[in-house]
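To: structure subgroup
Subject: Chain for Friday's discussion

All,

I'm putting the inputs and outputs inline so they're searchable in the archive.
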Amino acid sequence: MLRRILPPSLAGRTALFLLLALMAVQAAGLTIHALDRVDLQRAATEREMSARLFGLWRAIVVAPPERRSSILSDIELPQGLEATLDDQPVVRVGMLPAPPPVLRMVRPDFMMGGPPRLRPREVQAGMRFGRIYLAIQLPDGTGWLNISVHMPTPRPWHSETFLMAFLLMTAAAALLIVWATRRLTRPVRDLARAANALGRDVNAPPMPEDGPLEVATAAHAFNTMAERIRRFVGDRTQMLAAIGHDLRTPITRLKLRAEFMEDDEQRAKMLADLEEMEAMVNATLAFARDDAAAEPSVPLDIAALCRTVLDEAADARPDVDPEAFTYSGPERLTLRGRPIALKRALANLVANAANYGGGARVILSPPSGGQIHLRVVDDGPGIPVESQEAVFQPFRRLEVSRNRETGGVGLGLPIARNILRAHGGDVVLQNRPEGGLAALVNLPA
């Protein structure tokens, strides 16, 4: 489940985790700020409430008794504060006693610590349903000033700009994080592209060995590996070319000697064996020698290449109806590749279909999902499912349906797969439901 939610790329996952961590830290910091703001709000409320209470008490005490009620009605009290003059205290039996933190909010000690003529005779405090009740007896004992206080609930998040500020900070941080992670993970993408290019072309240019120490070290190691691969391929090609040259010389001498044999039947058999040996040597050298590695990649029309291969296959088999070699697909379809190598791979697949199916049909589909799909189908006997992968091994032939008379030495399909994989594609075989075999080719668009 987590893998479905996470972004597929390393940069995306790094950016997501950094952003979540930043948001958590930012939320924690804003929470601490909000709690400090609550303390500031509470302190400000306490100061305002204490000042109002002391001012109200002083105005009532210094006024003549007959004017106290009118003065109390004229005083503008803040929201949550109510005051009345009564004969009895409002604090009743059964009320909860006001705890010291609540009493500190209204500060009745201000009045008790004033001048003797302004000190109340008695102060009672209680709480009920979240309200604070104070009953302060006047100094002359003529009545009680009853006060009801409802302290407003602190609202730490009550800010018109809080949400906007949080979103702006998060957006700015997200942009910086995405930019930084993409820049930091760029060498990984470059390394992947270089590895892909090396798989297609062993002579691909080396990676730049710059950037941070770890990146430069990885690039240097990759370039060293690529150079060793190129050297290995070159040494193998040179060795096989020498072997091929050395083998051709005795085969040619044996052919000349066979021509002087008096027995016509034995001479024909020997020449046939020598021809077969020479064909095997040539096919082996063609398979092992990667001539396509030195061929540059250029834009080419794969549709035209398919038609050319079919025409040449039809010309090479004058006894077969030309209608057996058909092409269906777009008139033009351009991709980047090595023309000679791709032509050789397609020719091997078409020849394989013609040898064992009596013809070949090439079906080219438009690009889909960044891939070009091509099918080479025939009407032959097909291949058993358990052998469809084994025929891509060098020198592997199916004894019943594929033999030396109808085919080569078992290198056509391996050569085709090597070339297609060098282009970043592949080929697999599949039996058709209506009969025959289909070679399914895919290439990067």
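Points worth raising on Friday:
The CA atoms of residues 356 and 402 lie 7 Å apart.
The chain is about 50% helix and 15% strand.

D.
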